[in-house]
Design a protein that fits this description.
This protein has 11 helices and 8 strands. The protein has 241 residues and is mostly helical. The longest helix has 23 residues. It comes from Pseudoduganella violacea.
């Protein structure tokens, strides 16, 4: 007989992601006993439920302890488990930095994307949903700022297509927006410090909404940050059957 934990896990394996407002997802996030049952079933397969309060979706990923046995090959760790070339990984990190970091800033200050000013009572409100705070970036601006460093238009278009298919981004006309996995599978706690205080420190001294247009002088640093973060971007991997 099917039960709710079995159905939730089967749906996540089938659809890769589910929204946080889904009935069974909400139950898993609020019902401790139900969450324990779900976690136990997933643990038996080396998986865990992955969510964060800043994302509108949840997904599944491997437990850290099982990753080397899955992704290690001949004692050599795969450079990434999505089949992305180096320029694809660099593009992923750049998109994460341009879309997710400003969104997190707005969520933490309880601002919506269309707010003109801070609400003095904003801290009493729940964290805004990603869809209410996430702002896309123009494709033409991305190509102008990063095309030369990330393989020019042909390679960038190819990698954007791969990232869209994987669920990291969505394309809405000329605008690139956050996909369901962009804020789930990137290790924000690790990458934020490395990028904001490291290679892209000069960029992120500006307010978040002004980050879209990045000077060419820091493009090499962006690539360096992407290479450094490559392993982190690949460690948590949803089922893609």
């Amino acid at each position: 007989m099917n039960d709710d934990s079995q159905i939730l896990i089967a749906r996540l394996l089938t659809h890769q992601t589910l929204r946080r407002d889904d009935r069974l997802v909400k139950r898993a996030l609020s019902d401790e006993q139900f969450r324990v049952e779900v976690d136990a079933r997933l643990m038996a397969c080396g998986l865990k439920l992955l969510d964060n309060v800043y994302a509108d979706h949840v997904t599944l990923c491997l437990h850290r302890a099982i990753e080397p046995k899955v992704f290690g090959a001949r004692d050599t760790w795969q450079n990434n488990n999505f089949g992305l070339a180096r320029d694809g990984v660099a593009l992923l990190v750049v998109l994460w930095a341009l879309i997710i970091l400003p969104k997190r800033e707005r969520q933490e200050t309880h601002q919506h994307a269309d707010d003109d000013q801070n609400d003095m009572f904003g801290q009493e409100k729940p964290v805004p949903r990603a869809e209410d705070t996430s702002i896309g970036i123009p494709y033409k601006a991305l190509l102008a700022d990063f095309g030369d460093k990330l393989g020019k238009k042909t390679r960038m278009d190819m990698n954007l297509g791969i990232l869209s298919k994987l669920g990291f981004i969505e394309r809405r006309g000329d605008i690139l927006v956050e996909g369901p996995l962009l804020d789930l599978l990137m290790d924000t706690d690790l990458l934020k410090e490395r990028i904001i205080n490291g290679a892209l420190a000069d960029v992120f001294k500006r307010v978040p909404d002004q980050v879209v247009h990045i000077p060419r002088a820091v493009l090499a640093a962006a690539n360096e940050a992407a290479m450094e973060a490559e392993a982190s971007a690949s460690t948590e991997h949803p089922n893609q059957d």
